[in-house]
Specification:
This protein has 883 residues and is of the alpha+beta class. Among the domains are: 102 residues, Immunoglobulin-like; 190 residues, Sandwich (Jelly Rolls); 114 residues, Jelly Rolls; 67 residues; 108 residues, Sandwich (Maltose phosphorylase, domain 3). The protein has 15 helices and 47 strands. A hairpin with a 3-residue loop joins β22 and β23. α7 packs across α8, α8 packs antiparallel against α9 and α10 crosses α12. It is globular, with a radius of gyration of 28 Å.
Length: 883
């Protein structure tokens, strides 16, 4: 029996945290079946090891996000925390390992630094990356040192010639007008008594760089890049020396001539300044900096991990295109950049162009729109030079290399994968290789688009935090990775942007950088992220705190939707809704032309969000609100039935999405309507030949709706369909991520002519949540996985499927396999939890405690494949609903 080191809040690295009373979580690891924690004991010590708090034995089974039992921490407080627990016996476990944690700067008055800028005048074009430098002398030895640092733009810091940390594109992208994130680094080992120097590279990033489509805009947040840094050096006698950004710093430019998120980087190695961040470097030709006023935005510590380099890939093939160009194929659509090792004459330039696909054998750059996605490197003439861009990233599988000196050795080029460094927590596998590849595509799509914020796509002139995308994908995301801290911080930006608007509507993208004509009206599905994403995080991570923090935002949106309903005479009526965006029937030039009425989608979501908020209000003790929102949901549900549903369950939009919403959001009050809707949905699916006919609103729900209607094999039919449009069509076309459109690439190998044609969009990969919960049968029955539900639904010609998830209590697993006429189900329930098990053929579910279990049941495979309904005049291989 052992206990893991406690985790504070959702921090993987608890240095410079922003909470004065961080909640604690731990796991108990034991082979004892059915083990339940009976009590715990928490000990908190200070930096010297003096015990600050010892709770003694506390009778409780709680082990996730337990309230901080000690005194509130001040800025820069360093503590050690350990835990021991009791089970049913009288003896406690051994103490857990100690987690050492340290707070950041918790009040504005702790900051004495001021932002400094190298920029004299606002620029309407890209700027070279600036070098900032300051020397200083320490007249005492160094006991410890912390660097607190952020930027208007993106930065990398160096001390005495050594890079500080391994963050990429720090400080990341927040709603800079409202919240500016800073980082804390332990730099004790980089400093010495005597002369020292600190330096930083400062790029434009999201702050002054070009953002948005249709050419975008520059200087969205301000006219000047700036660095804000505070180096606090503690000496053995307890005194502190602080080095801060001020007018004593100097600035110049170096080898990075330009570095932009969309267009890439221009690097001239001949302009390098060796030793620029070391003491003694000659800065006589450097320029003074200008000190700016203190930030008006709140300075916040990170709630999630930073962006890092997480993997490298080598080329799998060197391709010579029909036009004679050299292209490297890395075998995987990824997000990151290239790292090259090269030798050649000084002044020689190498050009690296990036794209996700090839079109007719050439680099397919049209989907990039106005993003150049091109890096150039001019050699200094040294024996071996290594280059990797600093302040840009690309979405690509293929890289065209032009101007390589001599013969290109593919081993000299590697792709560096970048994303927020979240812990992987979820896995899925089955006997169907194409389904496995689909799931892997979902994982890679999430990795690429969780780059500091949850973006829609990583490659073209967009890369924005679209709210609808993450709303529908969050259940999948929160299974695959521990994204709780990252998304919790993003939700705080959402709330800040929402309340900065006069109408209180969550914007379409967060941070909000859209012109008013794109984001000036509310849209269901997108705005509902304010309610449904916090709810998903609560359900998956057991974090009631995220509901408390986001409650004003949640309530604000539902109050707005209630006003819209009232203005519409009982239903929300609007000329245009994004609705079931990217319905496969929509033409390339009009992705919003869905088969399902936008008003139907909008009012389904009003009812859903009101239902959820009523439950949240009750959890938070807001009983009056709970009653109000229950009544709102009831009235909208009744009006929905009158407006959109016949007594027999037929919907005014006779489309897959309409029925999926009605069934999954409990919008059909009578048994007759539910049965009728389920039958009609099944008929539509059969008539379509199992081709998908849903967009953003319907895709996450369609398989669950079929299962709810007693037709799981039809859901399998849709899952395994390979014709276009379907989930597996892109897989058969060689996709390694999820596409934005069901037919981003046409069967003839040409790219869809629509302006929006990304090959890395995670939204339609929301089906993976169904794979985890229904195919493998693993889901949370209570918030935070305190109680599990194991309910596999075997089907099609699959002979096994399994899923695993690292819950807050430990690893949970569920899987099944078919052995002749026997279904074998194997489960693993983590300690301190219980599970409800519902096996095929059993009448009632039963409950089990923690541990490993194997169950066997007689099993008769379903008839497969299910029959489609074909038009009497169609050819044998054609379904009447094929698009």
């Amino acid at each position: 029996m052992k206990v893991t080191a406690p985790v504070l809040e959702h921090h993987r690295e608890p240095l410079g945290i922003g909470e004065s009373r961080p909640r604690l979580s731990w796991r108990s690891e034991t082979d004892t079946p059915g083990w339940i924690q009976q009590a715990y004991r928490i000990e908190i010590t200070d930096a010297e090891g003096t015990v600050l708090t010892d709770t003694g034995r506390v009778a409780s089974a709680d082990s996730v996000l337990v309230a901080w039992p000690g005194p509130a921490l001040g800025s820069g407080s360093r503590v050690g925390v350990r835990v021991q627990v009791w089970g049913e016996g009288a003896e406690p476990s051994a103490w857990s390992p100690v987690t050492h944690a340290e707070t950041g700067l918790l009040t504005r008055t702790d900051w004495t630094a001021r932002p400094i800028t190298p920029d004299r005048e606002p620029a309407d074009a890209s700027l070279p990356v600036a070098l900032l430098h300051r020397t200083f002398t320490l007249d005492k030895a160094v006991a410890s040192a912390r660097l607190r640092i952020t930027a208007y733009g993106v930065y990398e810091a160096e001390i005495n010639g050594t890079r500080v940390g391994d963050h990429v594109l720090a400080p990341g992208w927040t709603s800079y007008h409202h919240r500016l994130r800073y980082q804390t680094f332990d730099v004790t080992d980089l400093l010495r008594e005597g002369d020292n120097a600190i330096g930083a590279l400062l790029g434009e990033g999201w702050y002054t760089g070009r953002l948005g489509f249709h050419g975008g805009r520059r200087n969205l947040y301000g006219d000047h890049r700036a660095l804000l840094a505070q180096l606090e050096v503690t000496h053995p006698d307890g005194t502190v020396t602080t080095i801060r950004t001020d007018e004593a710093w100097r600035a110049t430019t170096g080898p990075v001539v330009r570095s932009e998120l969309y267009d890439g980087e221009v690097y001239d190695a001949r302009l390098a300044r060796p030793g620029w961040s070391e003491p003694g470097h000659d800065t006589s030709d450097w320029s003074p900096v200008t000190e700016l006023p203190a930030p008006e935005a709140e300075l916040v510590a990170p709630t999630g991990p930073p962006v890092r380099r997480t993997k490298t890939l080598t080329p799998v093939e060197v391709i010579t295109t029909p036009s004679g160009r050299t292209v490297l194929d890395f075998g995987q659509n990824l997000v990151g950049r290239l790292r090259i090792r090269v030798s050649g004459p000084a002044g020689h330039t190498i050009t690296l162009r990036h794209a996700e696909v090839l079109e007719h054998g050439e680099l397919g750059v049209r989907p990039l729109r106005l993003a150049a996605a091109t890096d150039t490197y001019t050699l200094a003439g040294r024996r071996v030079e290594t280059y990797e861009p600093r302040f840009t990233f690309h979405g690509f599988r293929y890289a065209e290399v032009e101007g390589w000196p001599g013969e290109l050795d593919p081993s000299a080029v590697e792709a560096v994968v970048l994303h927020t460094d979240m812990a992987r927590t979820g896995w899925f596998e089955s006997s169907h290789e194409l389904v496995n590849r689909l799931h892997e595509n979902v994982v890679w799509g999430m990795r690429g688009n969780f780059l500091d914020i949850p973006t829609d796509c990583p490659q073209r002139d967009e890369r924005l935090g679209w709210t609808g995308d993450i709303q529908v994908f969050a259940p999948t995301a929160s299974f695959l990775y521990d994204c709780s801290g990252m998304l919790g911080g993003w939700l705080r930006d959402l709330a800040a942007e929402q309340f900065a608007r006069a109408d209180g509507v969550p914007p379409l993208v967060v941070p909000d950088v859209l012109p008013l004509e794109f984001g000036g009206i509310p849209h269901a599905v997108w705005a509902d992220v304010a309610v449904l994403l916090p709810w998903t995080l609560y359900r998956r991570f057991g974090d009631l705190g995220v509901l408390r923090t986001q409650y004003p935002s949640m309530r604000g949106w539902v109050e707005t939707s209630a006003r819209l309903v009232e203005e519409g005479g009982g239903l929300w009526r609007q000329d245009f809704q994004l609705g079931d965006w990217l319905d496969p029937a929509a033409p390339p030039e009009d992705p919003g032309a869905a088969r399902t009425d936008g008003d139907l989608v909008a009012n389904a979501y009003v009812a859903r969000s009101a239902d959820v908020l009523a439950e949240v209000a009750r959890l938070l003790g807001e009983e009056d609100d709970a009653v109000r929102y229950e009544e709102l949901a009831r009235s909208v549900r009744a009006a929905f039935g009158e407006e959109f549903v016949t007594p027999g369950g037929r919907l005014s939009s006779d489309a897959q999405t309409a029925y999926a919403l009605a069934l999954c959001f409990s919008l059909l009050p009578t048994v007759r309507q539910r049965l009728g809707a389920a039958e009609r949905l099944a008929l539509l699916v059969r008539k379509s030949g199992f081709r998908i006919a849903t967009g953003f609103a319907g895709t996450p729900l369609i398989c669950d709706a079929l299962c709810a209607g007693g037709e799981p094999q039809l859901a399998y039919g849709m899952l395994l369909e390979q014709g276009c449009p379907s989930w597996l069509y892109p897989v058969t076309m060689g996709a390694t991520t999820v596409w934005e459109r069901w037919d981003s690439m046409l069967p003839d190998g040409s790219i869809n002519p629509g302006e929006m044609t990304s090959f890395n969009h995670y939204a339609l990969g929301a089906v993976a949540d169904w794979l985890h919960r229904r195919v493998a049968g693993l889901e949370a029955a209570e918030p935070g996985w305190r109680r599990l539900r194991i309910a596999p639904v075997p089907g099609a010609d699959l002979v096994f499927a399994k899923a695993a998830h690292e819950t807050p209590y430990g690893r949970a697993e569920a899987g099944w396999r078919i052995e002749g006429e026997t279904l074998v189900v194997e489960v693993c329930v983590p300690p301190n939890t219980r599970a409800e098990v519902q096996l095929p053929g059993d009448g009632e579910p039963f409950e089990i405690g923690s541990g490993h279990r194997t169950f066997r049941r007689p099993y008769t495979a379903p008839a497969w494949p299910p029959a489609a309904i074909r038009h009497p005049f169609s050819s044998p291989g054609e379904s009447s609903g094929a698009l």
